């Protein structure tokens, strides 16, 4: 028989479909529906991994996400290599290639196992803190190379991941996490009332523990059949979405839950272009957590040999996959659930050598069932050690006396030991949601307390460990009536024996493991307490207990109990480690989604990008945008091209793509009041059809953005922002609207990519646009500076702004982005009648600097106020309040020596200063004396016929006419402080 531990019948695998796979280069066969772990167990493979520190042989411990031992690497070729997967969660597919990890040269013969032979204390808790301190210089030459070689689990993939990943945003009335008895009940009840329900479960099939209960009946039918019927009912309801292979890994504010869905890892043939995983970013009206409970191992000497596993996992392998964990089993239990495992295995032909029960006697139902099955029960007994190398071969049994001492009594031969150490509610997501936990003293477990969000915990994660209790809580959570009747159940009470099991052996010479993956033992935790660690968070970090990839699912509570015992304190007084997202590891690909390779930093192009490229533009990156920097003619340098573009704009005109400006639509009956509160300027009396320069501050009173804002209607504003500030400003607005100004009826919409913007500037701007517009009078009298009109241009809708960022007569043509290129080409063709030029961002910077116009982010550094920039005129003097107003009156904001925006004219007109260069009062500054400020903008100005610069200088406006210095490697450069306006100071050119 190729699968000697496969039962003759039973389970939910497809026995008609044989699935070939390899593990460590050896071929095996499983069945469709198997996991890698269940298929290996069916083939008699107990050894699946090596521990991290001691390289001890390890087999599978659990059957799901709690697994700490059986970590494997899976390779699919073509760059598809994934380390550190749990064999318990890897679904079998034809041709699967898996490798064990953390061993050399092989899994059976691992040189690293020598670590297990070093004297006690060498690798004890915190050894790295003590060992690597001396001798001096050894860190670089000895310790660090050794640690780098030894550290980590698995091997980092060497090739780029060829798969792609996707994100999806979703909303529902009720999210149910977990599709066991409680989860299915909650989903049935909630969806029956018409609620939109999403059910997420990490497993390939829904049903949870119901699939492992052969003796359980619900409303007279087998538990698995009831689960299948419930799933079929949910599938038929159009208001229900069922997500299998989907892990809820993080629970965030306002019922925002992250779900990681595996889409193709279980398939032998990968569909073309199908995403490997999908991350759901889900907002729910209410969340029902039905995440179940995690069975705990027992901490006794040599409790980690292959073949020693959780009793609940053994039931799963038997009843879900038709796999026996061994032929001769010892069941070590602290509650009745161990008896359920023993009974199932005995019926499947596994010889139960003994049920070793810590308690003086089992529960009544368990005792009756054990007697009926003629099971040998050793009460008030413990396992004090095991034997065997690559698989457990025997268990040492001890009798616990009335005084707690242990007397060795016998050795029992076995090939598997099943631990039933009690059940701990999976409260991780509840804790992530900021819900407070409460400690149940009677059962020794933490339970969900008062929720912090619209959330309910039901079933085992709420301490209701039996199926009957879970169904009742699930139906109640969904608003339904009575739950179905349940029969044939041996229900655990939860909790159990926590901490180290008593034994008669020398505690300094045995290894009783608490954290299986990180090789943390009971004596390590006691040592941490002896060395002064009192908080469980400190004990965790000193010992690394609970810091492995399983996040302490099977080690936290035992470690906490051992520490509490060593401190002689109740468990709640020692504290509880923090449950952080993700609940189980999530691939980097899922988080990245499409943001990888050339999409890692998305490239945004305007509608005219292709035209600019065809016309020789050189591009620069501005935020995420590609913007035309300048348009050189053949043989032109950058400086020559920029000078030509600037002169052309001032002499006849130019056309510029300003589409990258941020654009936000502010709409609603309270839109004007909202603008009053967010911007320094007054907006209530601004008439529709007019524009105003807007200045935005943060709470500290510092400038964070500016832009021209047009009022389209009494309840509608078209807000422009800086290119890089668009997302920041929208987030700032939303933050205040949702948290501070909740009384205002306002809606915000980002329209940055909806509108293409073409700036037409210069003396001929009006002549170029006149024949192209329809229904708009753009004459000087009808459309003065800082006004806007809606109509059509080139046959498409437009919002036409009469604004200028060059100081020349100017218009900004806003058209739907789909028509942006056509409008540009029509405007360009008309502009050529007047010899106008296309100009880029560098010329735009020069033109605006000649007029003294600022750019937020260039003339500001996060500590600049409106007064520093000479923009007091942009503050509404009669406004009762706006964000940042009170901060403007702080004493430090009114100091005369604050850095203020000024102009600089170098003594040598040809010298162009370096932007960012420091400014000092002396040609040779005294070391330690602070600089006066720095250069913010600096250009060669065609209009001024010389270099110009803008700068932030301490007390700058009082220094007009003074000479300052800019120290440079070639020597200091002298410059005169002046007004920051270098061209057309009276503004006469604005009207052409």
UniProtKB/TrEMBL annotation:
Domain SoxA A3: 511-593
PANTHER family documented for this protein: AMINOMETHYLTRANSFERASE, AMINOMETHYLTRANSFERASE, MITOCHONDRIAL
Gene3D superfamilies: 2Fe-2S iron-sulphur cluster binding domain, sarcosine oxidase, alpha subunit, N-terminal domain, BFD-like [2Fe-2S]-binding domain, FAD/NAD(P)-binding domain, Probable tRNA modification gtpase trme, domain 1
Transmembrane annotation, as ranges: none
SUPFAM superfamilies xref list: Aminomethyltransferase beta-barrel domain, FAD/NAD(P)-binding domain, Folate-binding domain
Family membership: Belongs to the GcvT family.
GO terms for MF: sarcosine oxidase activity
Domain Aminomethyltransferase C-terminal intervals: 899-984
GO biological process: tetrahydrofolate metabolic process
Origin species: Alsobacter metallidurans
Keywords: Oxidoreductase
The organism's taxonomic lineage, starting at the top: Bacteria, Pseudomonadati, Pseudomonadota, Alphaproteobacteria, Hyphomicrobiales
Protein name: Sarcosine oxidase subunit alpha
Domain FAD/NAD(P)-binding: 173-442
GCVT N-terminal domain location: 609-877
């Amino acid at each position: 028989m190729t699968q000697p531990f496969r039962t003759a019948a039973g389970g939910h695998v497809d026995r008609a479909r044989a699935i070939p796979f390899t593990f460590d280069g050896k071929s095996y066969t499983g069945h469709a529906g198997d996991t890698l772990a269940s298929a290996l167990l069916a083939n008699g493979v107990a050894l699946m991994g090596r521990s991290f520190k001691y390289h001890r042989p390890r087999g599978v411990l659990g059957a799901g996400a709690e697994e700490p031992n059986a970590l494997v690497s899976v390779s699919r070729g073509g760059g598809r290599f994934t380390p550190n997967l749990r064999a318990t969660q890897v679904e079998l597919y034809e041709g699967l290639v898996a490798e064990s990890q953390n061993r050399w040269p092989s899994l059976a013969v691992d040189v690293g196992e020598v670590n297990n032979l070093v004297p006690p204390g060498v690798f004890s808790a915190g050894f790295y803190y003590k060992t690597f301190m001396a001798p001096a210089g050894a860190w670089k030459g000895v310790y660090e190379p050794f640690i780098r070689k030894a550290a980590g689990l698995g091997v980092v993939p060497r090739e780029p991941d060829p798969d792609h990943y996707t994100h999806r945003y979703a909303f529902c009335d009720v999210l149910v996490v977990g599709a066991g008895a409680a989860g299915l009940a909650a989903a049935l009840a909630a969806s029956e009332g018409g609620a939109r329900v999403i059910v997420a479960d990490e497993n390939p099939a829904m049903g949870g523990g119901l699939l492992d209960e052969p003796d359980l009946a619900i409303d007279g039918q087998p538990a698995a059949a009831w689960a299948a019927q419930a799933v079929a009912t949910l599938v038929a309801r159009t208001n229900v979405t069922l997500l299998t292979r989907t892990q809820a890994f993080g629970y965030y504010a306002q019922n925002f839950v992250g779900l990681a869905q595996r889409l193709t890892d279980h398939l032998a043939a990968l569909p073309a272009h199908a995403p490997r995983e999908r991350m759901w970013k889900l907002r729910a009206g209410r969340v029902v957590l039905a995440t179940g409970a995690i069975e705990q191992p027992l901490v006794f000497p040599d409790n980690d040999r292959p073949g020693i596993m959780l009793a609940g996992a053994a039931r799963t392998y038997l009843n879900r996959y038709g796999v026996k964990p061994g032929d001769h089993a010892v069941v070590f239990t602290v509650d009745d659930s161990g008896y359920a495992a023993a009974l199932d295995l005995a019926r499947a032909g596994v010889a139960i050598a003994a049920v070793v029960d810590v308690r003086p006697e089992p529960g009544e139902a368990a005792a009756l069932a054990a007697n009926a099955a003629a099971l040998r029960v050793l009460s008030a007994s413990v396992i004090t050690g095991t034997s065997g190398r690559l698989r457990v071969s025997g268990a040492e049994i001890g009798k616990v006396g009335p005084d707690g001492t242990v007397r060795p009594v016998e050795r029992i031969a076995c090939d598997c030991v099943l631990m039933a150490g009690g059940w701990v509610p999976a409260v991780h997501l509840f804790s992530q949601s900021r819900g407070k936990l409460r400690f149940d003293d009677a059962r020794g477990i933490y339970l969900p307390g008062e929720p912090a969000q619209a959330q309910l915990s039901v079933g085992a994660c709420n301490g209701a460990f039996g199926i009957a209790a879970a169904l009742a809580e699930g139906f109640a959570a969904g608003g339904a009536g009575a739950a179905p009747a349940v029969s044939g159940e041996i229900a655990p009470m939860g909790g159990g024996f926590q901490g180290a099991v008593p034994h008669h052996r020398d505690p300094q010479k045995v290894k009783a493991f608490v954290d299986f993956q990180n090789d943390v033992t009971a004596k390590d935790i006691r040592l941490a307490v002896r060395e002064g660690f009192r908080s469980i968070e400190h004990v965790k970090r000193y010992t690394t207990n609970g810091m492995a990839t399983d996040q302490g699912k099977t080690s936290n509570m035992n470690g906490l109990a051992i520490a509490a015992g060593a401190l002689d304190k109740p468990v709640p007084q020692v504290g509880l480690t923090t449950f952080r997202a993700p609940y189980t590891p999530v691939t980097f690909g899922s988080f990245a989604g499409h943001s990888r390779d050339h999409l890692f930093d998305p490239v945004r192009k305007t509608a005219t990008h292709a035209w600019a490229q065809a016309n020789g533009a050189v591009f620069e990156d501005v935020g995420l945008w590609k913007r035309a920097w300048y348009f050189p003619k053949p043989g032109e340098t950058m400086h020559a091209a920029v000078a030509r573009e600037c002169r052309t704009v001032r002499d006849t005109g130019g056309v510029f793509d300003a589409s990258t400006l941020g654009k936000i639509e502010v709409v609603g009956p309270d839109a004007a009041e909202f603008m009053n509160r967010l911007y320094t300027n007054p907006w209530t009396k601004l008439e529709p059809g007019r524009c105003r320069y807007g200045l935005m501050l943060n709470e500290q009173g510092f400038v964070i953005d500016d832009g021209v804002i047009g009022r389209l209607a009494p309840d509608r504003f078209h807000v422009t922002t800086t290119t890089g500030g668009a997302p920041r400003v929208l987030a700032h607005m939303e933050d205040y609207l949702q948290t501070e100004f909740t009384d205002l009826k306002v809606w915000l919409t980002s329209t940055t990519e909806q509108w293409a913007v073409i700036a037409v500037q210069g003396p001929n701007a009006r002549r170029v646009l006149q024949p192209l517009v329809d229904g708009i009078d753009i004459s000087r009298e009808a459309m003065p500076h800082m006004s806007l009109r809606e109509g059509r241009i080139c046959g498409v809708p437009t919002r036409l702004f009469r604004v200028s960022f060059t100081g020349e007569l100017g218009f900004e043509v806003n058209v739907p982005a789909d028509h942006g290129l056509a409008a540009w080409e029509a405007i360009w063709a008309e502009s050529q009648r007047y010899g106008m030029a296309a100009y880029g961002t560098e010329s735009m910077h020069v033109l605006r600097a000649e007029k003294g116009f600022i750019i937020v982010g260039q003339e500001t550094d996060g500590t600049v106020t409106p007064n520093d920039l000479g923009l007091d005129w942009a503050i509404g003097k009669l406004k009762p309040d706006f964000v940042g107003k009170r901060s403007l009156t702080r004493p430090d904001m009114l100091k005369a020596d604050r850095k203020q925006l000024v102009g600089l004219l170098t003594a040598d007109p040809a010298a162009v200063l370096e932007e960012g260069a420091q400014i000092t009062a002396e040609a040779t500054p005294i070391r330690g004396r602070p600089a006066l400020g720095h250069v913010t903008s600096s250009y060669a100005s065609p209009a001024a016929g010389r270099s110009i610069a803008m700068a932030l200088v301490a007390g700058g406006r009082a220094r007009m006419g003074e000479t300052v210095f800019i120290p440079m490697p070639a020597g200091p450069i002298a410059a005169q402080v002046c007004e920051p306006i270098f061209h057309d100071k009276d503004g006469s050119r604005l009207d052409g």
